[in-house]
């Protein structure tokens, strides 16, 4: 049973605007796009700060960056980051810090229901910023994600890391996209030592066929991410986080199916029909002959 103090903290809206704000914060059948927040620890190198700014640039406009330094150790106490995420309505966080024991550390994590779901710590190596390349991409561009290497499927740990990276960099969910809208690609290559993150700009050029010729131009940031510490969610918690609400599930259509060629087949159920009552005499091809009429008159007279 909740205490009296906890009940007093529940505040009801007194204005129409306040009610609208509270309704926007309530759980939805289709959730809003995940907002990212970028935080900095007590110390961070210049390369690490620039890397955080570059990741913020490719995440805009659904991202916020805080310049103030924070005395936070996420793997020891995650509550300060959860508080920052609730205040800024974010469910994905990037935390950068550097010290003697763990230099150039980048922690990427996500939240579920206001609490930590999972997070991964990387060591940033061989960093190249966006400013070192002449190419650029427009803001709010949905990237294509490419995962190269057999280790993504062979290692269970990398499979969970892949799920996190997809959730962080996938962009907004859309129904369709035109070919000219494919402008940016993020490629993650898994090796035995690190994860190579590469960014390219997609160029569509003329070709002798209807399909354009695709070329890739280097685009920052380029960074090697060495996997350090991980904190994954339990199977039950991940199952809850991935559950689809009943209202969002599409209802299956009965008696409709598709074959291997994609042709739609349907089955229609009809009641039993009395063929003898169907009017067919007006059709020339179905007129009764003289013999049939004679037989019909005899049956009628006998009745």
Could you describe the 3D structure shown?
The protein is an alpha/beta fold and 303 residues long. It has a domain at 32-242: Brix domain (Rossmann fold, 3-Layer(aba) Sandwich), CATH 3.40.50.10480. It is built from 8 helices and 11 strands. The protein has helices spanning 4-9, 16-25, 46-59, 79-87, 151-154, 156-169, 235-241, 290-302; strands at 36-40, 63-69, 92-97, 105-112, 115-128, 144-148, 184-190, 195-205, 213-231, 256-258, 264-266. The strands form 2 sheets. The protein has a 9-stranded mixed sheet with strand order 2-1-3-4-5-9-8-7-6. The protein has a two-stranded antiparallel sheet with strand order 10-11. Strand 10 and strand 11 (264-266) form a beta hairpin. The protein is elongated and about 115 Å long. The termini are far apart. The model is unreliable at 1-8 (pLDDT under 50).
How would the blueprint of this fold be written?
Blueprint: H1 4-9, H2 16-25, E1 36-40, H3 46-59, E2 63-69, H4 79-87, E3 92-97, E4 105-112, E5 115-128, E6 144-148, H5 151-154, H6 156-169, E7 184-190, E8 195-205, E9 213-231, H7 235-241, E10 256-258, E11 264-266, H8 290-302
Parallel strand pairs: 1-2, 1-3, 6-7
Antiparallel strand pairs: 3-4, 4-5, 5-9, 7-8, 8-9, 10-11
């Amino acid at each position: 049973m909740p205490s009296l103090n906890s009940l007093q903290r529940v505040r009801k809206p007194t204005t129409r605007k306040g009610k609208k704000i509270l309704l926007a914060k309530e759980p939805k059948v289709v959730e809003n796009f995940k907002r990212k927040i970028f935080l900095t620890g007590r110390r961070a190198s210049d390369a690490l700060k620039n890397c955080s700014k570059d990741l913020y640039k490719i995440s805009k406009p659904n991202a916020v960056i805080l310049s103030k330094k924070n005395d936070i150790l996420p793997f020891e106490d995650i509550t300060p980051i959860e508080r920052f995420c609730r205040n800024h309505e974010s469910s994905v966080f990037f935390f950068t810090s550097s010290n003697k024991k763990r230099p150039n550390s980048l922690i990427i994590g996500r939240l579920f229901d206001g609490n930590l779901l999972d997070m991964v710590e990387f060591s940033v190596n061989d960093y190249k910023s966006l400013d070192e390349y002449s190419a650029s991409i427009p803001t709010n561009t949905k990237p294509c994600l490419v995962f190269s290497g057999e280790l993504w499927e062979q290692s269970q740990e990398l499979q969970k890391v892949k799920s996190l990276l997809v959730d962080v960099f996938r962009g907004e969910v859309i129904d369709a996209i035109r070919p000219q809208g494919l402008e940016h690609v993020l490629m993650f290559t898994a090796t035995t030592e690190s994860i190579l993150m590469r960014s390219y700009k997609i160029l569509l050029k003329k070709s002798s066929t209807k399909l354009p010729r695709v070329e890739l131009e280097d685009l920052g940031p380029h960074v090697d991410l060495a996997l350090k510490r991980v904190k994954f969610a339990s199977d039950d918690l991940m199952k809850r986080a991935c559950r689809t609400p009943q209202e969002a599930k599409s209802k299956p259509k009965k008696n409709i199916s598709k074959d291997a060629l994609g042709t739609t087949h349907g089955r229609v159920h009809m009641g039993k029909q009395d063929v003898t009552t169907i009017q067919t005499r007006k059709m020339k091809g179905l007129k009764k002959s003289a013999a049939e009429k004679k037989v019909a008159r005899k049956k009628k007279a006998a009745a």
